[in-house]
Design brief:
The protein has 13 helices and twelve strands. By secondary structure, it is of the alpha/beta class.
Length: about 300
C-alpha cells in the first residue's frame, strides 16, 4: 500500500474495515422518489437532511467509512437542471459536508469509535447516462473526454476534504485507466477502484479481472481494488480472481441478493433464498477482502451484522 494511505491505521488494528451500505435505496425506503436521471443527487438538491440521517444511521450501525452522495452528482448532469459548474461543485461539496457532519455528530455520541473515514463517490460516465450502462460499459470516450468529465467532481471532492475517493461501479477498463491517470494530477489523492461484473472472471466491458489488476498496478494512488453493485452470489469467485492478481487489499460491497432491471428501474427476487452480507463474510475474508460493506438494497441492519463479526 502507498504512503499516506488513510486505510492503514484501520487495517493495522483489525481484520477488515466495515463500509456503509446502500444510500439511494435507503433514501427510497425513507420516502424519496429517485425516478430521476440524477438519482440520489436529486436529494442533494432537495432534501439533504435525509442524506445526513442515512450517513448517521450507518455510523451508528458500525460503519467505519461513509461513501458520499456524489455517485451521480456531476456538472454534466446538473447542467440539465440549469446549474452552472460553480453551483454543481457546491452541491458535490455538500455531499462531503453531510457525511463529515454525520461523522462528527456520531463521534460526539461515541468518542472512542474512530478513526472513521469519508470516501468521495466517483461514479462512472455510465451513471450520468442513466441508462444502465454502468452494468455494460459499452460507451466509448477518449482519455481526454473521460478526464474532462471526471475532473470537476474529483477536484470538488478533494477540496471538500474527503479522506479518499471511491471510484466505484466502474464497468470499463478504459475509463478506469483514464481515471487513474487523472489522479496523478492530485498527488494527495488516494482511491479505491471497484468494478461491476459481466461474470466472475470479467468486468462488465469484458476485460478479464486479472488484466484489470495488471493495468492498474502502476498507479500507486490506488490503495484497494475490488467489486461493488454486483450480485451477492458472484462476489466470492470474483474476489478469488483478484486475490491472485494483485497484492492490494480487496474491497467488496455487493447488492442485497435481489436482481435489478435497468430498464424498468425495479428490483425483484429471483426465487431463491437471499442470503445476507454476513453469510458470505468468511468466504470474502478468505479471498482477501479487507473493505467490506453493502451496495443497493442493503441496510443499516446488514452493516450492523457485519460489524458484529469484526
Amino acid at each position: 500500500m502507498s504512503l499516506n494511505n488513510p486505510l492503514t491505521p484501520l487495517l493495522s488494528q483489525q481484520p477488515f474495515v466495515v463500509l456503509d451500505g446502500a444510500l439511494a435505496t435507503e433514501l427510497e425506503a425513507r420516502g424519496c422518489n429517485l425516478a430521476d436521471s440524477l438519482w440520489s443527487a436529486k436529494v442533494l438538491m432537495e432534501q439533504p437532511e435525509l442524506i445526513y440521517a442515512v450517513h448517521l444511521d450507518y455510523f451508528r450501525a458500525g460503519a467505519q467509512c461513509a461513501i458520499t452522495a456524489s455517485y451521480q452528482a456531476t456538472p454534466a448532469g446538473f447542467a440539465a437542471r440549469g446549474l452552472d459548474e460553480a453551483q454543481s461543485r457546491a452541491l458535490i461539496a455538500r455531499s462531503v459536508a453531510l457525511a463529515r457532519q454525520a461523522r462528527e455528530d456520531f463521534l460526539k455520541e461515541q468518542p472512542d469509535a474512530g478513526p472513521l473515514l469519508v470516501a468521495g463517490s466517483v461514479g462512472p460516465y455510465g451513471a450520468y447516462l442513466a441508462d444502465g450502462s454502468e452494468y455494460r460499459g459499452d460507451y466509448q470516450l477518449t482519455d481526454a473526454q473521460f478526464a474532462a468529465f471526471h475532473c470537476p467532481r474529483v477536484e470538488a471532492l478533494l477540496e471538500a476534504g474527503v479522506d479518499l475517493l471511491a471510484c466505484e461501479t466502474l464497468p470499463s477498463l478504459a475509463e478506469a485507466r483514464a481515471l487513474a491517470a487523472l489522479l496523478a494530477q492530485y498527488p494527495q489523492a488516494r482511491a479505491w477502484f471497484s468494478f461491476t461484473l459481466r461474470d466472475s472472471e470479467h468486468i462488465s466491458d469484458g476485460s478479464p479481472l486479472a488484466g484489470v489488476a495488471a493495468a492498474l498496478a502502476p498507479y500507486p494512488q490506488i490503495v484497494a481494488l475490488g467489486i461493488n453493485c454486483v450480485p451477492l452470489e458472484d462476489a466470492s469467485a470474483a474476489l478469488a480472481r483478484l486475490h491472485d492478481a494483485t497484492p492490494l487489499p480487496l474491497v467488496v460491497y455487493p447488492n442485497s441478493g435481489e436482481q435489478y432491471d435497468a430498464v424498468s428501474k425495479t428490483w425483484r427476487h429471483d426465487g431463491h433464498t437471499c442470503h445476507t452480507l454476513s453469510h458470505h463474510l468468511d468466504a470474502w475474508r478468505a479471498a482477501g477482502a479487507a473493505l467490506i460493506g453493502g451496495c443497493c438494497r442493503t441496510t443499516p441492519a446488514d452493516i450492523a451484522a457485519l460489524n458484529a463479526r469484526r
